[in-house]
Amino acid sequence: MSCNAMKVLIYSADNGAFPEVELYEGLRHSLGDTNVVLHKPKVYGTKGNRTLPTGAMADGEIRERIDEFDCILFFYCTFADKDFEYVLNRRTSAVKMYVDGVDDFFVRRVYHNPEVRYYLKRELYKHAPSFPYTIAWGTRYLYETAHIHPQINYKWIFTKWAALSGIAISGRYKKMRPLPMTVIPRDVKSTEKKVYDLSFMGHINSIDRLAYANAAQRIAVELGLKAYISKDYLNPRPALGRDAYLKVLQSSKAGLSTRGIGYDTYRYWEIPCYGTALLSQRTPQVIPNNFVDGDSAMYFSGKEELNQKVKRYIAKSDEWREIARNGQRQFFRYHTPEKRAEYILKLVKE
Predict the structure, then answer these.
(1) CATH code of the region 196-334
(2) Which top CATH class is 3-125+168-180+337-349?
(3) Which of 172-176, 182-186, 220-224, 235-239 shows the lowest per-residue confidence on average (mean pLDDT)?
(4) Disulfide engineering: 197 pairs with which of 112, 151, 203, 225, CB 3.0-4.6 Å?
(5) What are the residue ranges of helices labelled H in the chain?
(6) Rounded distance between C-alpha atoms, residue 210 and residue 204, angstroms
(7) What is the pTM of this model?
(8) Within 13 Å and on the Cβ side, how many CA atoms surround 30?
(9) Using alpha carbons only, what angle is made at residue 48 by residues 15 and 333, rounded to the nearest 5 degrees?
């Protein structure tokens, strides 16, 4: 089966969040518009900086067309969707894969379905956490919910617990494969002149993010650096707006990335994509062809190491410049939506 002849169905009951839109864009680039079909997405238009087309399947049409596809990718589906069980269990020649971008509760029920060849996991961890660590993590999540977002309803607590219950360990499940996030590059410009030494713009939804954003602000003051630190406690995207956000990002020598609800965030990929040096909290997840500390990124595991990296690479040298170039090169070589799509198509042909 050649890639050009392959026809892919994206089956989703969600509203256009990662990874549906990014992979849709990547697959369209590889296969062409007519060979990538969306099953009734709820969003017609935009969500944030992402878009979905309006030509989706009509309700119930999937039952008539299911046999025409070579690959079916499931995204964020619920068992309340009347067609989901039918499409999942119907025996066809299509390769079926489930793309778990949000730590779904029914991970094991879908994983063990014999019709599913691969289960693609956004955060696939390198090692199994110990039982005390798991308890501590769950307790910390509940603490964050109460102290950072006391106004949040039970849906927020549900989301936090889903992240804990959906932990998947590399090597434990044979059908598990890592599929980290990506971003769709838009208006990527070469910005040699940098206005800020360091920037962070984001939604404060974890204790780590609050602590490191505050630490970066203090470090910048101590070292006489110019920093743009914007901590948004209410909105899921910075209040700057998309264009202003990218302008600040591309005008920064380094961008700070930390854990949010999970470790894999848009910011982790946006920073190198737009030519800024990635200054990131270390992540325990499996990321094939990940950035390398001191070469294409700057990683830290605590406030002291964060301080050391800022001093060495930003305050006392121009090493950040080469790190930014290498990080951007690494992103476009391995981590674009097209590269994620190529990875999926390779799995289909196995």
Answers:
(1) 3.40.50.2000
(2) alpha beta
(3) 235-239
(4) 225
(5) 20-31, 62-65, 84-89, 107-111, 131-147, 154-165, 207-223, 242-250, 266-273, 303-310, 319-334, 337-349
(6) 6
(7) 0.85
(8) 24
(9) 95
